[in-house]
Amino acid sequence: MSLMSRLRAAARSAAEATIEFGGGDPAELVALAERIGAREDCSAECAVLPGSPGVLVVRFTGPVRPSP
After folding, report:
1. I want to staple 20 with a disulfide (CB 3.0 to 4.6 A). Which of 24, 25, 53, 57 is the partner?
2. Which domain of life is it from (predicted)?
3. Which pTM was predicted?
């Protein structure tokens, strides 16, 4: 499952997603999670855990949407 799909599914379920990443800018991943949350009418609490690989933990809270 792609990163976008995992984040979107977690947002629609008001769930938590944990994603390992090997590089890039963690701030961009946080911004992406926040945009997806806003699109799905929920908020996103994000935490970036340092290390190799890095870990992004996103907790979505808000309305739960039925699965398509």
Report:
1. 53
2. Bacteria
3. 0.84
